[in-house]
């Protein structure tokens, strides 16, 4: 069985159980770890506190001893018996013995741990001791007297004074206190009193502590002022060396550490807790070591309890997570089951990893359907929007304001009902070349882009709606605020910017016509007709012009019907005299004067001028150029968009007519003939009877001359061009229209389906169906 299919139905539920269980387990683990670590730290701190109490007791005993001996030293230094010995000029052994006996009897009776009392007499350079022997030479004292070394005063010094027993020198450890006066002159003192204290009481105290904690491995050590141990011979020297080294390293690494504290160190794989404290008045340091495992053994039971509790919580987490997951999952599971049961169509897309992925797949498919429906709805609304805008332009609607506002709102028309309206018409220049240069789809795209660019630029100041009239122009209905009296000049600047952008991106130009404004939306039809009439004045103003009523007011109100007859006579004289310069000058004056007429009179004047030129040429027995033939006037002159183009045609025709080698200049003379044939084919390619013979008959020229002229100019025969153009149109229809191959062949003027298949495959190397499939796949990929 496929694991994916097995767990797919409940995969999300299993994930919920695992995630909730994991979350609870992590929480318990973190809390347990925190409790365990805190317990360790707390135990260490408590152990440190207990160790400090022990060390403080030793510290107190040492301080008490130090204070007692210090007071005794001061007392003895001033004692008469001591001073009698210390400052005697002559040595009298009886007196010395008597005075020492008094001193020892008074001191030892009061303080039993006094070892001995030493007195140094500088006058005699002799030292005496209450111990054995009487004349004890204190080497440390003599070294001090004979050197510049400063002897510590009233500070306990742990030293070995070495006693002689049966002729053998044995170690004798004591604490020694020295007291003396130093003369101001810096000379050596006259006398020194030395109090030697037995160390047994302190060492026995420490040994007792070590014996008490012997099973735990605890030990106490004392370091003197110079960092040496007070050694009674009972401790391991290796332990002392390790402890001293680590303690000094710790103090060096932590200069900010307090005088009392603790740290952990490892020796021989065993971790130790080291507690230390300083005895300030003596300069000594107390150290206590304790194995950390002995401390942590009390927490082992706690660790076992924590592990047990964690396992219990793991089981509880599973139970709780299953319970919680069921409650959370219930609506999700119900929804998934409902969708799975209610879905009419199932597909491979339904096979998903878990429930959420399944819902996501269903949601995505539903949204795709909704998006499709929305697109259809938008397209429907776009069609209806185009319908209502077209009606506003082409009909004088008598609809109430409330109903019109409702239509605007429903169709999302952005025009503002309050205020005025104007029509802006954008007429594509050189429209015939535009038709020949682009396919139908490209032409629609360019018109759509023109609407978008111009609409976006005008929308900075005026709300507007664009409309593609599916001809040589697009139209905008523009909302104009009532207070904007100079809207035409403002729109003029905006439209010039739109012209620049369209020209830069699409390499085409357009002429704009702006109507007057009206406050009644029912009059938009009249404003549209006004804009159309104004646009015809492109003939006089030229391409890329922006036309308003003010710009053509002089032409419209001009009452003259034609140019001056005097200019016509001058032109005839110039033609008969073959004065080229005079001809061009007169023609320039004629066109300048025609440029001031209204559109209709200017057009009639052009026909009149051509008639006069033809008449004069015929009188002169000069062959008229083909571009001035009656059959070419409507195409070459009346259909031209600007006066500049008409002017150029007439000047070129006159030049061609007067050339002696007119008939030999095939390319120049037959330009308009070839152009006419090409245009005729492009407009009548759907006619099955279209052929070289039918075209020659219409053009009133022999088929032989027509075929030769056309092929010499274009390097392709007329039948081949007819087939090429028909196949190009068929290729467009294959990817644009939902028609079968026979219908497309018939639509492009080819009635023989087999012949169409043969020609199409010869040109495109594939069948019509394969061509359509490939083009559609390319469009989908793009």
Automatic annotation (TrEMBL):
Coiled coil: none
Transmembrane segments: 12-37, 306-324
InterPro entries referenced in this protein's UniProt entry, alphabetically: Homeodomain-like_sf (IPR009057), HTH_AraC (IPR018060), HTH_AraC-typ_CS (IPR018062)
Gene3D superfamilies from the UniProt entry: Homeodomain-like, PAS domain
Residue ranges annotated for the HTH araC/xylS-type domain, each copy included: 675-774
Keyword Cell inner membrane applies: no
Key words of the record: DNA-binding, Membrane, Transcription, Transcription regulation, Transmembrane, Transmembrane helix
Pfam families: HTH_18
Keyword match Coiled coil: no
PANTHER family: ARAC-FAMILY TRANSCRIPTIONAL REGULATOR, HTH-TYPE TRANSCRIPTIONAL REGULATOR EXSA
Identification of the protein by name: AraC family transcriptional regulator
Organism lineage: Bacteria, Bacillati, Bacillota, Bacilli, Bacillales
């Amino acid at each position: 069985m496929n694991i994916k299919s097995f767990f797919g139905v409940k995969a999300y539920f299993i994930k919920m159980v695992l995630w909730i269980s994991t979350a609870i387990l992590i929480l318990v683990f973190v809390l347990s770890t925190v409790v365990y670590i805190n317990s360790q730290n707390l135990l260490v701190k408590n152990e440190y506190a207990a160790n400090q109490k022990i060390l403080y007791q030793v510290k107190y005993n040492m301080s008490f001893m130090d204070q007692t001996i210090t007071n005794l030293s001061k007392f003895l230094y001033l004692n008469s018996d001591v001073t009698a010995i210390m400052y005697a000029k002559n040595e009298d052994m009886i007196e010395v013995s008597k005075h020492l006996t008094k001193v020892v009897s008074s001191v030892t009776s009061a303080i039993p741990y006094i070892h001995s009392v030493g007195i140094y007499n500088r006058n005699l350079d002799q030292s005496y001791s209450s111990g054995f022997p009487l004349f004890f030479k204190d080497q440390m004292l003599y070294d001090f007297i004979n050197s510049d070394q400063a002897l510590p005063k009233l500070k306990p010094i742990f030293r070995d004074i070495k006693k002689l027993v049966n002729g053998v020198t044995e170690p004798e450890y004591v604490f020694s206190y020295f007291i003396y006066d130093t003369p101001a002159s810096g000379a050596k003192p006259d006398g020194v009193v030395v109090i030697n204290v037995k160390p047994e009481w302190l060492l026995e105290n420490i040994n007792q502590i070590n014996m008490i904690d012997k099973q735990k491995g605890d030990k106490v050590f004392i370091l003197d002022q110079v960092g040496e141990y007070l050694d009674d011979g009972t401790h391991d020297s290796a332990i002392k060396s390790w402890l001293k080294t680590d303690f000094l390293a710790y103090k060096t690494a932590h200069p900010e550490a307090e005088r009392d504290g603790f740290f952990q160190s490892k020796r021989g794989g065993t971790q130790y807790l080291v507690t230390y404290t300083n005895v300030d008045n003596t300069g000594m340091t107390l150290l206590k070591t304790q194995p950390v495992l002995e401390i942590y053994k009390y927490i082992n039971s706690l660790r076992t309890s924590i592990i047990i509790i964690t396992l219990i919580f793991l089981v509880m987490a599973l139970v709780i997570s299953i319970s919680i997951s069921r409650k959370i999952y219930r609506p999700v599971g119900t929804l998934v089951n409902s969708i799975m049961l209610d879905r009419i169509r199932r597909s491979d897309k339904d096979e998903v990893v878990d429930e959420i992925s399944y819902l996501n797949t269903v949601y995505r498919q539903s949204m795709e359907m909704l998006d499709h429906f929305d697109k259809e709805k938008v397209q429907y609304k776009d069609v209806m929007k185009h319908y209502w805008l077209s009606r506003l332009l082409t009909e004088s609607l008598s609809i109430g304001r409330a109903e019109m506002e409702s239509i605007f709102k429903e169709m999302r028309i952005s025009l503002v009902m309050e205020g005025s309206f104007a029509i802006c018409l954008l007429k594509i220049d050189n429209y015939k070349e535009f038709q020949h240069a682009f396919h139908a789809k490209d032409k629609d795209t360019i018109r759509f882009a023109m609407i978008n660019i111009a609409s976006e630029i005008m929308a900075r100041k005026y709300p507007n709606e664009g409309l593609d009239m599916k001809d040589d122009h697009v139209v905008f209905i523009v909302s104009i605020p009532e207070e904007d009296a100079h809207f035409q000049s403002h729109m003029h600047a905006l439209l010039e910017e739109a012209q620049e952008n369209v020209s830069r991106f699409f390499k085409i130009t357009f002429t704009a016509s702006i109507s007057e404004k009206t406050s009644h939306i029912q009059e938009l039809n009249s404003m549209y007709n006004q804009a159309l009439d104004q646009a015809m004045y492109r003939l006089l103003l030229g391409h890329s012009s922006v036309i308003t009523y003010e710009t053509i007011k002089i032409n419209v109100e001009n009452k003259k019907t034609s140019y001056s007859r005097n200019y016509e006579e001058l032109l005839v004289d110039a033609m008969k005299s073959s004065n080229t310069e005079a001809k061009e000058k007169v023609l320039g004056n004629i066109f300048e004067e025609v440029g001031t007429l209204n559109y209709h009179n200017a057009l009639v004047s052009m026909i009149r001028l051509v008639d006069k030129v033809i008449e004069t040429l015929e009188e002169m027995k000069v062959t008229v150029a083909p571009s001035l033939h009656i059959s070419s006037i409507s195409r070459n002159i009346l259909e031209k968009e600007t006066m500049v183009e008409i002017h150029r045609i007439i000047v070129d025709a006159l030049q061609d007519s007067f050339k002696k080698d007119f008939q030999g200049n095939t390319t120049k003379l037959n330009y308009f003939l070839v152009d006419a044939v090409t245009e005729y084919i492009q407009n009548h390619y759907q006619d099955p009877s279209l052929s070289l013979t039918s075209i020659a008959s219409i053009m009133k020229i022999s088929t032989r001359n027509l075929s030769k002229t056309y092929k010499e100019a274009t390097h392709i025969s007329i039948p081949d061009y007819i087939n090429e153009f028909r196949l190009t149109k068929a290729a467009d229809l294959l990817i644009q229209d939902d028609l079968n191959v026979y219908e497309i062949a018939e639509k492009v003027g080819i009635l023989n389906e087999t012949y169409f298949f043969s020609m199409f495959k010869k040109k495109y190397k594939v069948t019509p169906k394969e061509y359509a499939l490939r083009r559609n796949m390319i469009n989908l990929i793009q």
